[in-house]
Design a protein that fits this description.
The chain is built from 19 helices and 18 strands. The protein is an alpha/beta fold. Strands 1-10-9-6-2-3 form a six-stranded mixed β-sheet, with helices on both faces. A six-stranded mixed β-sheet has the order 15-14-13-12-17-16. Helix 1 packs across helix 2 and helix 7 runs parallel beside helix 16. The radius of gyration is 21 Å and the shape is globular. The chain starts with a strand and ends in an 8-residue tail after the last helix.
């Protein structure tokens, strides 16, 4: 059940700290904990730092530390690049570096169970017929934790409909097989059938896994929802604390109401900025593609200004796969996946080739800080010089939403694409049949 929640326009830092205190008090009573001896905090990684999840984690750490607990932190990286000590200081402040552990998605996982192929097939309407092996971070599964706190930001997501909740476990702390099976399943089912839906097939599989394999974990979810203020900055509008699916649904419904922008007509030109301190590879910067694709007009153009982007994949082998094949349509990827061993070896990367493709509908133009024109064009994107992009579309001068430039060009500007979903109303409604209601 939802232990408690708070909603408002807007929640101040003190109110979120109060929610953290209330969580620690209620967890003792609800989970029968006498004293906190060993506690594990599971926040998102640096690509979600804008949600305040770093300082929330830091606050929880110090409250527990002062009460005498031994507290550990594992950023739920999935297969993103582990944080540097500088990243950790920037995001988590004064938490000691030796208490922050990097998730190792290849060698640091333990097998906990398997979601049966029949269940996966049933949830995907027969689109996918493979089982989903669940391999999770060994430190989470093997230690005698008194409490595990999942901290996260609920926002529309391309694989799970909405991010966070048990995604923290199965993607954030998952192993290679789990990541591969889940990402390919979502790609085959169709990214646009997942985005902004409360219960996607992969989410249903994760709910099955949580119920069957993680029921004994003494855990609780602390989830925040954010929205844009008038001045274009993101601020908290809700905090939801609890230990079950209703906690997810409450937060996801709030995000659905606040974080989805629906257009009556498709948009010809969107300009999106991916912050340099959070997004260093197209792997994560392509959130700009995922979150806007349902709004794009056929023949339109999406411009992504990404000063921090210096590579394609987060890992060398993923980077090599993207460079080899480029971003391809779902049909092209699926036909090659059947025969190409390197695609089969890293299916989560293969799925990304689909997610980052405009499917031939519109043009994606990248203005990266550290990739050349040749590199960008080799994967199927158009190239725009970063300085030129910043001159023409100066983020300091543009307002979120519609802008008319001095030369008369009309664009739709998005300063933080990772914080929402933009779509035509027709595209959202067209897949109502895919929505599986709670």
């Amino acid at each position: 059940m939802v232990w408690f929640s708070q909603e408002g326009r807007w929640l101040e830092r003190g109110q979120l700290e109060q929610a953290c205190d209330q969580l620690l008090t209620e967890a003792k009573e609800r989970l029968g904990i006498e004293t906190y001896r060993r506690v594990l905090l599971l926040p998102p990684d640096i690509t979600r730092a804008h949600a305040g999840v770093g300082w929330i984690t830091e606050y929880l750490y110090h409250q527990l530390d002062q009460a005498g607990a031994e507290v550990h932190v594992i950023p739920t990286l999935g297969q993103h690049v582990p944080h540097t000590p500088e990243d950790n200081r920037w995001m988590f402040g004064t938490i000691p570096e030796e208490r922050i552990h990097a998730h190792d998605w290849k060698d640091g996982v333990t097998h906990v169970g398997t979601v049966p192929a029949e269940y996966v097939a049933e949830r995907t309407g027969g689109a996918v017929d493979w089982e989903m092996p669940i391999d999770l971070n060994t430190m989470v599964m093997r230690q005698d934790w008194d409490l595990i706190i999942n901290v996260g930001h609920i926002v529309p997501h391309e694989v799970l409909g909405f991010a966070n909740h048990n995604k923290n476990y199965f993607i954030g702390l998952g192993g290679k097989r789990t990541l591969g099976a889940a990402h390919m399943a979502s790609a085959v089912y169709g990214i646009e059938n997942n985005l902004g839906n409360l219960l996607t097939p992969v989410r249903a599989c994760f709910n099955y896994a949580e119920e069957h394999f993680l029921a004994d974990l003494p855990d609780v979810y602390l989830q925040v929802v954010m929205d844009y203020r008038e001045d274009g900055t993101l601020a908290h509008t809700g905090v939801y604390v609890g230990d079950d699916l209703d906690t997810y649904y409450s937060a996801a419904r709030a995000s659905m109401a606040q974080n989805i922008t629906a257009f009556e007509e498709p948009v010809d030109k969107i300009v999106a900025v991916m912050q340099a301190d959070e997004f260093r590879a197209t792997w994560v910067a392509n959130k700009a593609v995922y979150r806007t694709r349902m709004a794009m007009a056929d023949g339109g153009e999406l411009v992504i200004i990404a000063p921090g982007v210096e590579r394609f994949g987060e890992q060398p082998e993923v980077d090599a796969l993207i460079r080899k094949y480029g971003y391809l349509s779902k049909d092209e990827v699926l036909s090659r996946y059947a025969t190409e061993a390197d695609m089969q070896a890293i299916p989560h990367a293969t799925a990304h080739l689909v997610h980052g493709s405009p499917e031939g509908r519109f043009t994606i133009t990248y203005a990266p800080g550290g990739l050349t024109r040749e590199e960008i064009e080799s994967v199927g994107y158009e190239y725009l010089d970063l300085d030129e992009a910043l001159r023409r579309y100066d983020p300091e001068q543009l307002d979120d939403g519609w802008n008319t430039l001095p030369d008369g060009e009309r664009i739709y500007f998005i300063s933080t694409p990772s914080a929402g979903l933009w779509s035509t109303r027709a595209r959202l409604e067209a897949r109502a049949g895919h929505e599986q209601h709670h």
